[in-house]
Amino acid sequence: MNESKITKVVGYCRLSRDEDKENYSSIEEQKRIITEYASSRNWTISDFYIDDNVSGYTFNRPEFTKMMERVQGGKIDVVIVKDLSRVGRHNGRVLVLIDDFKNMQKNLIAVSELSGSYDVLHDKDDLIGITTWFNERYVKECSKKTRDHMYSKQKSGRLIMGNYYGYEKVFKDDMPMLYVIDEIKPVIELIFKLYLEDGYGFQKISEILNTKYNFPTPSEYYRMKHLERGRIYKHKVQEAWTKDMVSNILKNEIYTGTLITHKKRSINIRGKIVKVPKEEHFIFENHHEPIISKEMFKLAQELRNKKYKQNTSGANKKHDYYFSGMCVCNDCGSGMSGIIIKRKVKEKGYDCSRYRQYSTKACHCHEIKEKDILIHLKEFLKFTKQKYLKEIKNIKIEIKQENKTSDKFKLQNKLNILNEEYKILINQKIKELASCNSSMQREIIENTYKELEKEKMQRMAHLQELIQSDEKKNLEDKIQKLKTALEYFDEIINASKPNRIILQMIIDKIYIHRDKTIRFQLKSDIEKLY
User: Fold this and answer.
1) CA 18, 154, 419 angle in degrees (round to 5)?
2) Is the pLDDT of residue 127 over 50?
3) What local confidence, expressed as pLDDT, does residue 209 receive?
4) Which of 449, 420, 455, 418 is nearest to 432 (CA)?
5) How far apart are CA 92 and CA 96, in angstroms?
6) Degrees (nearest 5) of the Cα angle 7, 12, 16?
7) What average pLDDT does this structure show over 346-368?
8) Among 341, 343, 367, 372, which Cα is nearest to 353's?
9) Are residues 118 and 229 in the same domain?
10) DSSP-assigned letter for residue 159
11) Percent of the chain having pLDDT more than 90?
12) Amino acid 205: pLDDT
């Protein structure tokens, strides 16, 4: 290219914030190097194209793309960069880009390359392939180090990815802690109640949240917290609850106090994210304060699986069905859909979902009233109770409903922080004593730290007492909640409206025959009676 024909020279700068500090070059430093080089050639930089905090492994960068469009359009003659790693760290694509510049007869100049500068149109490029290979190798090594570091943190529970609606993430000495957000906790409890006790599907629950309550959606809440901290929330905000939001909450074990890490991983640099098999997950039980009991969560997953297999999600339900997710067609094995039977009086009932969808080509009408199932169930439980009275008394079933969670986790976190402070205090005392030569000063230091240590120890002892007292209270509450299967049998037998959670704890499936005979299948521990 004839320098007299050069009309426009631009600089390109790129910075990735995760680069090694030894190779770290700030945007301003890159601009200085580029400007000085241009001045030495009597050129003027007309524009700078800058991609800040963008990886060099991807070429899908806003400013780089804009610049290359102008180069291809003939509006830029020369592009100056600090070195080729600023252009990119993907070996093959950088070499292709160099060929593209040559073919267009446009110049790309790397100021600090090959122990000097590298000019695409005028310098030999025998060693450029090695340079670009080293650049790619560097970013791959950085990526591996990052993945290994993340894996180590996931394995020790020191990495919690993303946000969890209902919890605030706080770091203490590189250890993340999750604290319940009191104003969000009620909506989590309500979603589980509507699903388990009232039998509503995901869509119906989202409708109830949108019309009867004023809880913020997860994205609304995150935007609000960002604004409070003076930040901009860049993600899409959904102001109405959706069935996917409800589903995600119902299947997230985080609400039981359990943290699970290493669920996903990337295949390569900026590559596809894939799910990790469950057996490779890292599970931390009792990691933080629960909002929902493990029993409630387990019931919700059982119900989800049943509805999925039966293809009856309950999304359009407008009525509270006691046995939704439990009834099965004995002929074809499909789930029984909740329906309204229209006779002289409208009544809730169930029918084979395959029959209702495909008519007699798939199955037959199994229409049965809900009140008839309840009558049969009560008689079945009475018979079972009389026949196996002694055995049923020995079966213990614990149901934790919407009980208030204890303060154990909050107290334990405070105790952990105090322990850390105590360790720091002791270390500081040792350092000060080691650097002190005067016996008088040593005595002053000893006495001063003695008071501080005493205060910390008293506070720690007080917290220990509170934790023990709380555990004792929880044990007493648990004993009160523990009932025999017999007591739950009696509750169902005597109730005009049975509790859905109790039904789910006792009943596994209800098989409906075409002649309207009913067969009840109880949970496995109760069925050991047979």
Assistant:
1) 100
2) no
3) 92
4) 449
5) 6
6) 175
7) 86
8) 367
9) no
10) -
11) 13
12) 92
E-strand stretches of 123-185: 167-172, 175-180
Residues in the chain: 530
Residue in this structure with the two tokens 């002694």, named with its chain if needed:
390
* Whether residue 506 sits in one domain with residue 465: yes
| Lowest model confidence (mean pLDDT) among 36-45, 273-282, 379-388, 510-519 | 273-282
Place of tokens 């359990």: 258
Q: Which of 67-71, 93-97, 139-143 has the highest mean pLDDT?
A: 67-71
Together in a domain, 413 and 501 = yes
Asked if the model's pLDDT at residue 313 lies above 50, the reply is no
The mean pLDDT of 103-130, rounded to a whole number, is: 71
**In angstroms, rounded to a whole number, what is the distance separating the alpha carbons of residues 474 and 404?**
10
Burial call 415-427: b when 16+ CB within 10 Å, e when fewer: beebeeebeeeee
Q: Is 84 exposed, middle or buried (0-12, 13-18, 19+ CB in 10 A)?
A: buried
Any idea what DSSP says for residue 335? B
Query: CB count, 10 Å around CB of 314?
Result: 20
CA distance 505 to 525: 10
Mean pLDDT calculated for residue range 216-231: 85
Task: Report the helix count and the strand count for the chain, using DSSP H and E.
Answer: 18, 19
Same domain, 381 and 504: yes
Q: Which three-class secondary structure state does DSSP give residue 442? A: helix
For residue 116, being part of any structural domain is answered with: yes
Using the Cα atoms of residue 131, residue 136, residue 141 and residue 146 in order, give the sign of their dihedral: positive
Give the Å distances, CA to CA, from 153 to 148, 150, 262, 471. 9, 5, 10, 30
Q: Which alpha helices (DSSP H) does 406-438 contain, by range?
A: 408-434
Which pLDDT tens digit goes with each residue over 264-284?
665 554 446 677 777 777 778
Q: State which of 108, 128, 150 marks the end of a domain.
A: 150
Cα distance between residue 457 and residue 448, in whole Å: 15
Which of 138, 157, 39 has the alpha carbon at shortest distance from 84? 138
Euclidean distance between the first and the last CA atom of the chain, given in angstroms as a whole number: 93
Total domains present in the chain: 3
Taking only the tens place, the pLDDT of each residue in 137-180 is 544 555 555 555 555 665 655 556 667 888 888 776 667 778 88
Question: Do 460 and 418 touch, CB atoms closer than 8 A?
Answer: yes
pLDDT in tens, 75-84: 999 999 988 8
